[in-house]
Amino acid sequence: MTQRNTAAPGHIEYVLRLGDNALILGQRLSEWCGHAPVLEEDMALANTALDLIGQARLLLTHAGRLEGRGRDEDQLAFLRGERDYRNLTLAELPNEDFGRTVVRNFLFAAFQVPLYQRLTASSDAELAAVAAKSLKEARYHLSHAGEWVIRLGDGTDVSHDKAQAALDYLWPYTAEFFAANPIDDAVSAAGIGPAWHNLEADWEAAVVPVLVEATLTVPARTPFASYGKFGRHSEHMGHLLATMQTMQRTYPGAQW
Amino acid sequence: MYTQSLSIPDGEARGPKKVENPAYQAEFDAKIAAGGFIEAKDWMPEAYRKTLIRQISQHAHSEIVGMLPEGNWITRAPSLKRKAILLAKVQDEGGHGLYLYAAAETLGVSRDELYEALLSGKAKYSSIFNYPTLNWADIGVIGWLVDGAAIMNQIPLCKCSYGPYSRAMVRICKEESFHQRQGYDLLLAMMRGTPEQRDMVQDAVNRWWWPSIMMFGPHDKDSVHTETTRWGIKRISNDDLRQKFVDATVKQAEVLGVSLPDPDLKWNAERGHYDFGAIDWDEFWNVVQGHGQCNVDRLAARVKAWEDGAWVREAALEHARKRAVREKDAA
């Protein structure tokens, strides 16, 4: 049913950012199926992917309703052009290896937890409900990935080096989490959700002690910047979308 | 999962050996005859133990190799709902692998030893997973036909004489029935769709029908199961299970609106069953013996996952060791 768009400025964009983060990281993690180092992790990665896809479904459905143009979760997930996706660049980067995968999950979940915590008090009741459900999942992802960061960082010399390399590679992309922008300002002013730059202290408080316990060196901030949440993605995004969108693009209008 | 009713020797079991003892043997025989369960701590003949290790581990291997053909489509699932269902399904399969490895471990063999047998090519897994998944309908057909055949094979195992295996199978069968319904639902949705979608379903059915009915293993006349039958592991013959599967599936195919690729398939009123055409056993044995489309790729994928993950497993062990030392020092 098509409704009129009555959303506050930035509201739809903000919800798309949330939904696309979950969608794109869920898509990446689902590549692990059958290829993990131990069976328990095959299941854990599939489970994390499933949680994220579940979050994406709720959030994209909500974004579609706010937009009022009749787009459902699948039209938003599969039929937008690359520049219309609003996920953090970090989510779309290739998995590379188990080390980069769990370090990424850790850095991301440590961001999702305080974000969803704040969103449980959103003036958007639907968003608050999704956040309350998803917060439990994000807390589990944070704990699971954090344990692996510690095992790898404080494991063998090889695993320490791989974990450090993963952290060094991913760290610059975390600056994007906190890049201030007018959307966040508007949404925050309307009581819909927090401005993400206000989450940095909470994120660091969750991340740094685990990295220290893992005997990893916290990288310094550099001038590097990425812009996925503004719709300017990495070279990897087009390939991810080509795979993910193939059926919907090849068979337009088909129901599955 | 996916048992295959075919006993293929994997080599020696390496669990603890127990002495053969006539008094214990008599007790074991009596328990089996009375339809009772044998538990992990009970005495059991060595051949019974080995047979179970082989069958349960082949079943476990089938679960984890079976994640690969389905994993082939997760990233391309055509809707978020179907992607979520498939992710949940492969996770269930990993879980089945875990219960089954745990059931095998009660017989005195480690999961690592069983893995090694799989990765070296010594242990078998269900041949059905050596067929490729070529279009999205394959995911539905695997649920409908492959999981359907697996359920037929496995329901009798819920009453098999070895307690840990029997209990694992009860749980697995419940989840498999759910997968079968989801597979059928996926196909119904496609059959209600465009001509291209219906063609995909028919193409998938054409490719998976014969391999599915081969999952019941060789004909009874060519199949030696005397011991497993006597021991209460195998309770219904291959041909009886296959007939039951064909009889149930023909009607489901009609509802779906697909044809089954067998010109000899027809109702036999005298027998009260469907007759069906001759199975190509050469193809069956070729795939069992390693010459299927995907045998090499499936095993290579498992080996690569294991080798690529070695540093992760080593790190986990080393971290646990360091932690234990620290805790000891602190105490």
UniProtKB/TrEMBL annotation, chain A:
UniProt protein name? Phenylacetate-CoA oxygenase subunit PaaI
Q: Which Gene3D superfamilies match?
A: 1.20.1260.10
Q: Which GO terms describe its cellular component?
A: cytosol
A Pfam cross-reference name = PaaA_PaaC
Please list the coiled coil stretches.
none
Q: Which GO terms describe its biological process?
A: phenylacetate catabolic process
Classification from the root reads:
Bacteria, Pseudomonadati, Pseudomonadota, Betaproteobacteria, Rhodocyclales
SUPFAM superfamilies with a match to the protein in the record: Ferritin-like
InterPro entries of this UniProt entry? Aromatic_CoA_ox/epox, Ferritin-like, Ferritin-like_SF, PaaA_PaaC, PaaC
TrEMBL record, chain B:
Which is one Pfam family of this protein? PaaA_PaaC
Q: Which GO terms describe its molecular function?
A: phenylacetyl-CoA 1,2-epoxidase activity
GO BP, sorted A to Z: phenylacetate catabolic process
Q: Which domain of life is it from?
A: Bacteria
Enzyme Commission identifier(s): 1.14.13.149
Q: Which InterPro entries match?
A: Aromatic_CoA_ox/epox (IPR052703), Ferritin-like (IPR012347), Ferritin-like_SF (IPR009078), PaaA (IPR011881), PaaA_PaaC (IPR007814)
GO CC term (a single one): cytosol
Keyword Nucleotide-binding carried by entry: no
Keyword annotations: Oxidoreductase
Root EC class:
oxidoreductase
Asked if the record carries the keyword Oxidoreductase, the reply is yes
Protein name according to UniProt:
1,2-phenylacetyl-CoA epoxidase subunit A
What is the originating organism of this protein? Pseudothauera rhizosphaerae
Its gene is: paaA
